[in-house]
Specification:
Order of helices and strands: EHEHEHEHEHEEHHEHEEHEHEHHEHHH
Shape: elongated
Mean pLDDT: 92
Number of helices: 15
Structural class: alpha/beta
Distance between the termini: 17 Å
């Protein structure tokens, strides 16, 4: 029996691929033990137990970026975290550590190295984080979601995706999606989403521009996000406002074009399914969302607009003409499909198995 320790958390970009890999490992090896290492504060604290996996937690330790009391305390706390993970590896008989980034990954990598346990890594973003840059020093088994990610020993495996996306037949599911969202069958569909937490700029601009979009002959599914103030629904025919899409697979099945943030999972799902996009990268952070969209944009399957420029004026001058050009959108769909794949979970699991076999 193989015991896997999957380390990662904090954000959906770390937790969702971790869970996709955990599920596939369980399917492939019913007698395997899959443990997850995370923190009590991250998204994993809710999602991992809900999925039925045992969550083992260590202290959340952001790397200090300036001198101060936290910086002075960091080395001792970090050493204790490493020792905690070493104890887990020994006590639970862990055979391989699989890291997905986030605060818990560095202690997990260093503990695995100290215990001579093989390491496999998945990096979801085009610009790798500190945790996985560290971990890549200790393993040759590094999977990345995007070509061009600068990480030592990187192999492109794609993004591990949810099974309902991975197995989605958009043509077969379109009719169900039309009924589910209350759409009409003979009009194109624009899907607007800022991710699970929403995107204020996207929400406000689309709400202010909705009559222009509807006037271009499109209907709209607008997913406003669970943690943002919802916009007021004007109850216009063809404009469907939802806070959270329980059936995002059906939203993707009916979408002819998307307006979205450029998080890793969003880019991977749209590219894998062949849905062209207008990406509005999140303005904060280190610019990774713009890099995530680089492949689809270079292929001609997507366009990028800066968050500050995504205004009603931009919608009028750029988006509405695009919506009226159905031939261009069809060409974009074909082009973005060349940049994506839906087999990231299987490819990452194969990388983990190689790490085990070549230890």
């Amino acid at each position: 029996m193989t015991t896997y320790l999957l380390a990662g958390g904090g954000t959906a970009g770390h937790v969702n691929p971790l869970l996709a890999v955990a599920d596939r490992l369980g399917e492939r090896e019913p007698d395997a033990e899959v443990l997850v290492l995370g923190t009590k504060e991250g998204l994993e604290s809710r999602l991992v137990p809900e999925r039925g996996y045992e969550l083992l937690t260590i202290e959340r330790l952001p790397f200090p970026r300036r001198p101060g009391r936290a910086a002075l305390r960091f080395p001792g706390r970090f050493r204790r975290a490493i020792e905690q993970v070493r104890s887990i590896i020994r006590d639970r008989g862990v055979d391989v550590v699989v890291g997905f980034g986030g605060y818990v990954a560095p202690p997990a990598y260093l503990a695995a190295r100290a215990e001579r346990v093989p390491i496999a890594i998945h990096e979801a973003n085009a610009r790798p984080g500190i945790a996985n840059r560290l971990g890549a020093r200790y393993t040759r088994h590094v999977g990345v979601a995007f070509a061009g990610t600068r990480l030592r020993g990187a192999t492109v495996v794609g993004m591990p995706l949810r099974r309902e996306i991975e197995q989605l037949d958009r043509f077969a599911a379109r009719g169900e999606g039309i009924r589910f969202f209350g759409l009409v069958d003979d009009q194109p569909v624009l899907l607007v989403t800022g991710g699970s937490s929403g995107a204020q700029r996207i929400n406000e601009t689309i709400a202010a521009s909705i009559t222009l979009i509807l006037g271009a002959g499109w209907q709209v599914i607008h997913v406003t996000g669970e943690y943002r103030e919802g916009i007021e629904d004007p109850q216009l025919p063809g404009y469907h406002v939802v806070k959270y899409a329980d059936r995002m697979d059906l939203a993707l099945a009916v979408a002819d074009l998307a307006v979205a943030r450029a998080g890793t999972a969003t880019v991977a799902e749209l590219a894998g399914l062949g849905v062209p996009a207008v990406f509005v990268p999140y303005a904060a952070g280190n610019g990774e969302q713009r890099l995530n969209a680089r492949g689809p944009v270079a292929a001609g399957g997507a366009v990028v607009v800066e968050d500050s420029r995504f205004t009603p004026a931009w919608v009028a001058s750029e988006l509405v003409p695009l919506l009226r050009n159905r031939a261009r959108i069809a060409d974009m769909a074909a082009r973005i499909a060349t940049t994506g794949s839906l087999d990231g979970t299987d490819r990452m699991v194969a990388l983990v198995r190689r790490a085990l076999e070549q230890q």
